[in-house]
């Protein structure tokens, strides 16, 4: 899952990125209001961590812009401004959660997971589709009750497809999801095809139905 950290304190941002990356999230960082707007106009995220005091603009104004997009990303406000009014206003605008600084990184990771689970998977820890079962917490996959070993990237792709059922996803979007904003600097997206090919092979060999479809000249779709 892809997370955008909007935070001008570089040391804090690096600590958050390091911890969440270890929890299998793809992390990107914006240090100013303008940088955040530029990323939000180009990329999609599953969760946004938003500081309220930013160089060049107010975090609550940025939250209003995020909500105008009407997409599915969750927003967690992380700010030293632990005032009641800021918290209420942020939640009224549409933030999913509010965490005051200083905070413990495991708590932040738990809240990120909770927001993504609530928005993408209806608050479920176990995803079930016919013979396929996925445990989001344990990061395990079973088909016909037998374990299927996936790499981190393959598991991430599978979760991404299940969170976007019946939606055609382009190779560019998949590259951004797997690699973050460095995807634009890659010569090609052949690595996406390689991960997709391996994922489809492992699911097929384990007896999973052919849910992952290739959409010619467009991308891929998980059909249900």
UniProtKB/TrEMBL annotation:
* Entries under InterPro entries matching the protein: CheY-like_superfamily, OmpR/PhoB-type_DNA-bd, Sig_transdc_resp-reg_receiver, WalR-like, WH-like_DNA-bd_sf
> Is Cytoplasm tagged as a keyword?
no
Q: Where is the Response regulatory domain?
A: 2-116
Q: Which GO terms describe its molecular function?
A: phosphorelay response regulator activity; transcription cis-regulatory region binding
Q: Give the OmpR/PhoB-type domain ranges.
A: 124-224
Q: Which GO terms describe its biological process?
A: regulation of DNA-templated transcription
Q: Which residues carry this modification: 4-aspartylphosphate?
A: 51
Name of a matching Pfam family: Response_reg
- DNA-binding annotation, residue ranges on this chain: 124-224
Give the matching SUPFAM superfamilies.
CheY-like
So which residues are the signal peptide here? none
| Lineage, opening ranks | Bacteria, Pseudomonadati, Bacteroidota, Chitinophagia, Chitinophagales
Name this protein carries in UniProt: Response regulator transcription factor
Example GO CC term: the record gives:
protein-DNA complex
Kindly state which keywords UniProt assigns to this record, in alphabetical order.
Answer: DNA-binding, Phosphoprotein, Transcription, Transcription regulation, Two-component regulatory system
Gene3D superfamilies assigned to the protein according to its UniProt record, in alphabetical order:
3.40.50.2300, 6.10.250.690, Winged helix-like DNA-binding domain superfamily/Winged helix DNA-binding domain
Q: Does the keyword Phosphoprotein apply?
A: yes
Record SMART domains: REC, Trans_reg_C
């Amino acid at each position: 899952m892809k997370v955008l950290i909007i935070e001008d304190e570089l040391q804090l941002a690096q600590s958050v990125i390091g911890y969440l990356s270890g929890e299998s999230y793809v992390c990107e960082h914006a240090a100013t209001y303008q940088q955040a707007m530029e990323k939000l106009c180009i990329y999609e995220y599953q969760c946004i961590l938003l500081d309220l005091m930013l160089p060049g603009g107010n975090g609550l104004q940025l939250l209003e812009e995020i909500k105008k997009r009407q997409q599915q990303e969750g927003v967690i406000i992380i700010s030293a401004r632990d005032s009641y009014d800021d918290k209420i206003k942020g939640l009224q605008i549409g933030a999913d959660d509010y965490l005051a600084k200083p905070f413990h990184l495991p708590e932040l990771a738990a809240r990120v997971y909770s927001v993504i689970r609530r928005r993408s998977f209806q608050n479920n820890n176990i995803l079930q589709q016919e013979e396929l079962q996925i445990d989001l917490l344990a990061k395990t996959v079973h088909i016909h009750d037998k374990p299927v070993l996936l790499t981190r990237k393959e598991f991430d792709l599978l979760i991404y497809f299940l969170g976007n059922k019946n939606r055609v996803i382009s190779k560019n979007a998949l590259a951004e999801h797997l690699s973050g904003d460095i995807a634009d600097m890659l010569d090609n997206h052949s690595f996406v095809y390689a991960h997709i090919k391996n994922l489809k092979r492992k699911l097929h060999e384990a007896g999973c139905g052919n849910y992952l479809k290739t959409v010619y000249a467009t991308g891929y779709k998980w059909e249900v």
